[in-house]
Design brief:
mainly alpha, single chain, Cell_Wall_Dynamics_Protein
């Protein structure tokens, strides 16, 4: 029998999250952990290592933050590498003296450009990039992934009326935030990758599926160490 996930365990991993919220998260993930690929400490540690990076220590399943500087846009995204002038136009602006942001980035525009014609999205003008930006405990991104996660969740949660494509904001609030992450986790076989071990390379293997080009590989490895210590 699988040992239930507890609020005190989650509080170690997500120290800035409210206790009553963590109780609800634990209850949600304890419903059927075997089906969710969250039935061993190792699997849970890998899962929460990724979730902590995606949502932060407050476990906030917010929509993706796209408030980037022009320099980061040109470094991280191929669209802006090819359109550097647009990076200056779309990125945030800082006061050179105070270093404070005086103009936020054009986040909707950025999303449509970097995700347009990718991951099942339509072109820039379609608005799909913004509509299907990252959401949930694992920041699921792109129309194709929203559709695939919807299909998976209908299997895992037959009592749930879910259509993340038609209602993408469902991923940004409980229980959609948790369930979309579980759907993504299981449909990509990440629980099986988690079974391979607890080395840094094992964490990296999962990170590469979730966000291959991220600069947070080291942070996710550190998250794993915290999570495994809490869950043993």
């Amino acid at each position: 029998m699988t040992t239930p996930l507890t609020q005190p365990q989650l509080k170690i991993i997500f120290p800035a999250a409210a206790i009553d919220y963590l109780v609800k998260v634990a209850e949600e993930l304890n419903r059927h952990p075997e089906a969710y690929g969250l039935d061993t400490p190792l699997r849970r540690a890998h899962f929460f290592a990724q979730v902590r990076q995606e949502c932060g220590v407050g476990l906030k399943p917010v929509s993706e933050n796209l408030n980037y500087s022009p320099e980061v846009l040109k470094t991280m995204f191929s669209y802006y590498k090819g359109h550097p002038a647009e990076a200056v136009q779309d990125g945030y602006l800082k006061n050179p003296q105070t270093k404070k942001i005086v103009r936020r980035a054009a986040e909707e525009t950025i999303a449509n450009k970097i995700y347009g014609d990718r991951i099942g999205n339509g072109n820039i003008a379609s608005g799909d990039g913004w509509r299907f930006r990252g959401r949930g405990f694992i920041q699921v991104t792109g129309r194709a992934n929203y559709a695939a996660v919807t299909k998976q969740c209908k299997v895992l949660y037959p009592d749930m009326d879910v259509d993340f494509v038609a209602h993408p904001d469902m991923m940004a609030a409980s229980p959609g935030a948790e369930r979309s992450a579980v759907g993504y986790w299981t449909m990509n076989g990440l629980h099986k990758l988690a079974d391979r071990g607890s080395a840094g390379a094992d964490v990296d293997r999962i990170t590469a599926v979730i966000n291959k080009k991220t600069d947070s590989y080291a942070a996710r490895r550190a998250n794993f160490v915290i999570a495994l210590g809490a869950l043993k």
